[in-house]
Design brief:
- By secondary structure, the protein is mainly alpha-helical.
- It has a domain at 25-60.
- The protein contains two helices and no strands.
- It has helices at 28-33, 44-50.
- The radius of gyration is 13 Å and the shape is globular.
Length: 61
Amino acid sequence: MAPAKAHVLPDRLAPNLKVWFVGTAAGPRSAAERAYYAHPGNRFWRAVHEAGITPRQFAPH
């Protein structure tokens, strides 16, 4: 059996960040769209907003 292919996206770091999210390699949908947490079923963006971290719910792009 062939090993699973890891989907790696570039880091999105910038000066003066207040929070970092660290995860494993991106899933196939996120890799194809070149955007983190891009699968429509992923709850990341909603959860970040509901936790009060963002002023609105963002999309992956």
